[in-house]
Amino acid sequence: MTAFSTLPLKPALLASVETLGYSEMTPIQAQSLPAMLEGRDVIAQAQTGSGKTAAFGLSLLQSLRVETIRLQALVLCPTRELADQVSKALRKLAANIPNVKLLTLCGGMPLGPQLASLTHDPHIVVGTPGRVQEHLKRGSLHGGGIKVLVLDEADRMLDMGFSEAIDDIVGRIAKHHQTLLFSATYPDDIREVSRRVQRNPVEVIVEAPADGKPAIEQQFIDVEPARKLDALAQLLTGERGQHALVFCNMRRDVDAVAEELDARGYSALALHGDMEQRDRDEVLVQFANRSCAVLIATDVAARGLDITALPLVISYDVAHDPDTHTHRIGRTGRAGQTGLAITLCTPRELPKAENIEQVLGRPLPWRPLKLSPPRGKTLNLAPMKTLVIDAGRQDKLRPGDILGALTGDAGLKADDVGKIDVFATRAYVAITRSLANRALERLRAGKIKGRNLRVRTLA
Fold first, then answer.
1. What is the phi-psi region of residue 99: left when phi exceeds 0, alpha when psi lies from -120 to 50, beta otherwise?
2. Which CATH code for domain 216-360?
């Protein structure tokens, strides 16, 4: 590990790094940042949670010239959720640089407000390929001054059919720019994209820890289809099951598994693409703030999830291909943590498991699971509960205002208040479950920032 202070970073960025508690660089940062700061193109194989966002974020902020009011950096992400996470991370890194304008431009959102925001050029845009391409075509986004292009989770963008959009975007921005490509897997089509859009890139592949201990322990469990839900419920009763992500291949199975787990007493929620965007946002908020113990999701919907300490990932269905399997297990064991990734495999799914084994080049770690007799409903509730406040950034509401109201008039201790998320028109705050009703009553009876605001429990 190497200290960030050894890099030629602006004092403002070093101050942000210190504020965020990043004492030493992660392997991906140590191996990629020197080349990126020199202006070299980089192609890096890096899992989510490895510190890649901070790596390319520090690099593009280092080259940013705030006094030049034009778009200088473009970050493309496969989903809106991931784009939102990247935007939040970049804003934190830029906290000590005054007047940095960053916009998030994603599909599924109204075009009007985005067009209004683009009347003055931003310095940085983070967005999904389709919407960014649309703005470039309309002329509402000007790519002639872009110095840095980042393709984040490039393999997922290709899986989602964004290859042509990426090529079109590259053709519409400044010819001479730095391209940084990050991907969790390294298939041939990623190498082909690199050949098209990069110039002599530095290749970075983060190896396993030198001590030989993998951050992620994998287990494959043979199970009959009729007992799959029983097996899942049993695996979720342990300590790791208090915060677990479960993958299903089909949207309908996501809903079915979530409903069954809820009926058995688990704090479980579903996440998939058929849901309204606000519902998806609220599910992600609840899982991140520990108001939901188990999240059942499709692969695409889970891409925006940014949870560092996620101890358990379960594949309820074997992934369709080895690359998807790699992405799934990469949701745990992140940022220096250890994690457990379990795959449930029925006899019909064995060919898919054998395909994963062939790509891994080693035998899969099968283990037996002795199933207990089915039990009645037992409560396996998440430790927190979420309150919704119908005010947000547009109302000048800040996390500190909410915390102050809860620890003041509401009489809670700071330790009883969890993660606070403030969106444009509403805010979400996690409260220790046993105190949530008391906090709700006190907030309704009192004021937040001198105002009476509508507060309710998020079901």
1. left
2. 3.40.50.300
